[in-house]
Design a protein that fits this description.
Layout: H1 13-17, E1 20-22, E2 28-30, H2 43-54, H3 60-67, H4 73-90, E3 95-98, E4 101-104, E5 109-110, H5 111-123, H6 137-140, H7 150-176, H8 180-193, H9 198-211, H10 214-231, H11 238-244, H12 248-256, H13 265-269
Parallel strand pairs: 1-5
Antiparallel strand pairs: 1-2, 3-4
């Protein structure tokens, strides 16, 4: 089955009726099937919903302190109450407020959580890889671009690393299964996402070697070496050079063919 960029499975009617929150490439809330569309939410309300999507079940005092740190506690609590009221009015059923804690209501779907769940499945060595599925978000999406709260920056970096490790793991497992064409697609998706990431380029080299394309592997090595020398002023690590060390003659041939020095990640990936 060819590699697809659609999330696996079909949502049931109950799930489709639940609200959905999107944080990748910008903030948006979908009300769920059969409900009126949600208009633009105030920034304070967006921050509250996003924070709850990225945390477990924080106490109200913790939420108020995180989202309104520069005002007195009483003022922060008042801002939280106002934001909760606005959320309930705009998207009924989105939040569960009980006791001193606030959380997303059961059944609410969040794109970041779906991406994280996919990555964890891929990285689980006990999992099966019958038909690997790479969601669109796994390839290029960024968490809440333009947001610079500390809790967003930390989660953005965590998600970036998780996504890259997952893409590399999918490529490696596809290679082990002999599905080299699909493996190369995923490996180059990782390279396009992070052009200077050596482990992504090592994955490309390993896929070529697994398929028996030694010359392609050597070429990929030289392309990466030229890139990091130009961009960072450093050479490949021992982990990278070790992949092609025993291919000395071909390395010299590849170096002598005048392989172009790419100016950017896009040129390198072509």
């Amino acid at each position: 089955m060819p590699l697809t960029t659609q999330l696996a499975g079909t949502l049931g009617s109950a799930a489709a009726a639940a609200p959905r929150v999107e944080l990748l490439d910008g903030f948006a809330v979908g009300p769920g099937a059969g409900r009126p569309p949600v208009g633009e939410l105030p920034r304070g309300v967006q921050r509250l919903v996003a924070h709850l999507c990225l945390t477990r079940r924080p106490a109200r005092t913790a939420i108020a302190g995180e989202l309104w740190p520069d005002v007195p506690e009483e003022h922060a609590q008042g801002s939280l109450r106002s934001a909760l009221w606005r959320v309930h009015k705009a998207v009924p059923g989105l939040l569960d407020v009980s006791g001193g804690a606030v959380a997303l209501a059961e059944g609410v779907r969040v794109d970041v959580q779906e991406l994280s769940a996919w990555a964890r499945r891929v990285l689980d060595p006990r999992g099966r890889l019958d038909d690997p599925v790479v969601p669109d978000a796994g390839l290029r999406s960024e968490l809440l671009p333009g947001w610079y709260d500390d809790w967003v920056l930390l989660e953005r970096e965590r998600l970036r690393q998780l996504r890259m490790h997952a893409l590399e793991a999918v490529a490696a497992r596809l290679t082990a299964a002999g599905r080299h064409g699909e493996a190369l697609q995923v490996a180059y998706a990782a390279v396009r996402a992070e052009p200077l990431r050596e482990s992504a380029h090592r994955t490309v080299v390993r896929v070529h070697l697994g398929e028996g394309n030694v010359a392609e592997a050597v070429r990929a090595f030289h392309v990466y070496r030229a890139l990091v020398e130009e961009e960072l002023g450093v050479g490949p690590t021992e982990q990278m050079t070790g992949l092609v060390r025993d291919l000395g003659r071909l390395r010299r041939v590849g170096a002598g063919r005048g392989i172009p020095r790419p100016r950017d990640g896009a040129a390198m990936a072509r």
